Amino acid sequence: MAHGIIHSHLPQVLVVHPPESFSVYQSQYSHKFHFLKAWESPLPLDQFLSTHARNVQAMLSSGISPIKADLLCHLPSLRLVVTPSTGLNHIDLSECRRRGVAVANAGSVASCDVADLAVGLLIDVLRKISVADRYVKQGLWASKTSYPIPLGSKLKGKRIGIIGLGSIGQEVATRLEAFGCSISYNSRKQKPSFSYPFYSSVFELATNSDALVICCGLSDQTHHLINKDVLLALGKEGVIINVGRGAIIDEKEMVQCLVQGDIGGAGLDVFENEPNVPKELFALDNVVLTPHRAAFTHETRASMRELAVGNLEAFFLNKPLLSQVMDN
Ligand SMILES: O=CC(=O)O
Questions:
Q1: Cβ(85) – ligand 1 distance below 6 Å
Q2: Contact 278/255 with Cβ under 8 angstroms?
Q3: Is the CB of residue 148 less than 8 Å from the CB of residue 172?
Q4: Catalytic site residue 224?
Q5: 304 CB less than 6 Å from ligand 1?
Q6: Is 245 a catalytic residue?
């Protein structure tokens, strides 16, 4: 039936924009929930919500599309937003709090994968794996007598500055310690359970690091946290890795620093205006780009779905949520 508008005995879950692999939610969980699919409706969204979603208590977010006051005002009965993402910047948490809407996210299920990609990007930038891959695949190795790939840089011994020592940052630290790097960090608050040196200033952290790895979430406090001064403090050999959110870095300034050689390189999985990536970066061999893929493994996507569904089930059974966002 169109848009899933049927009278069903199953609990209704509003889906405004489908999350990745929504077909799997449908095939595996349609016996538990009735998914109300707003995007399939020919009605304008406002009208659809006012007409069909006024009594809906729970919604499943796509993990990307904004859930802000302009949407929430059409959903007076809403009590839960579940997002199958780690990041929460697409959700207006204070508006949710004001309206008594709980929020549950993917908790730490993606942390290992995200940390793996961060370390992979760092190794790629330092050891020029993508450059070398292109060199071989383009037939340059076989066709040239000289060896034009510049030397890479050793990972062991590098001073790594982690921004955000949450579960992703901690996984990055564990991995890079095993590679013989030294770890320091910046976080909202010092974490006494870790002995890594803490810097309350990102500028000081950058000054004392060979690479910065951004692992924090995007908020008003972290927007453009990495500005021109921080980038210049990182220096000409310094590398920046971002698996957090694009807007944590002032992207325009970063592009300029990379183009002018004011920093040494970058490994970026996230961008300010996805899916648009500054074209200037395409020509730079010291920059490795991935399209927001850090949490994309079969295993983690399945865990994210299971946790999202677990939260929905808990909600409808009046049980505690499995991964409620604490400051919500
Ligand atoms: O970026 C991915 C996520 O927030 O899960």
A1: yes
A2: yes
A3: no
A4: no
A5: no
A6: yes
DSSP string, 255-314: HHHHHHTSS-EEEES--TBTTB--GGGGG-TTEEE--S-TT--HHHHHHHHHHHHHHHHH
Output the residue whose Cα is nearest ligand 1's atom 5.
85
Do 149 and 283 sit in the same domain of this protein? Answer: yes
- Residue whose CA is closest, atom 1 of ligand 1? 87
Cis peptide before 192, with omega less than 30 degrees from 0? no
Mean pLDDT of the chain: 95
Q: Compute the distance from residue 217 Cα to the ligand 1 centre, in Å.
A: 9
Q: Per-residue pLDDT tens for 168-177?
A: 999 999 999 9
One-letter amino acid of 42: P
Q: What spacing in Å lies between the alpha carbon of 260 and ligand 1's midpoint?
A: 31
Residue 236 in domain = yes
Instruction: Verify that 92 and 130 share a domain, yes or no.
Output: no
Q: Tokens in use for 179?
A: 């590679």
In contact, 304 and 84? CB cutoff 8 Å:
yes
**Span of 51-60, 251-260, 318-327 with lowest mean pLDDT:** 318-327
Q: Which two tokens stand for residue 242?
A: 């971002």
Give residue-wise pLDDT tens across range 11-55: 999 999 999 999 999 999 999 999 999 999 999 999 999 999 999
d(CA 56, CA 193): 42
Residue 292 bears catalytic tag: yes
Q: Of 17, 127, 159, 292, which is the active-site residue?
A: 292
Q: How far is Cα 298 from Cα 180, in angstroms, rounded to an integer?
A: 30
Residue 256 and residue 278 in contact, taking contact as beta carbons nearer than 8 Å: no
What total of structural domains would you count in the chain?
Answer: 2
Residue 197's SS3 state is coil
Residues 116, 216 share a domain: yes
CA-closest candidate to residue 288, choices 95, 131, 61, 151: 131
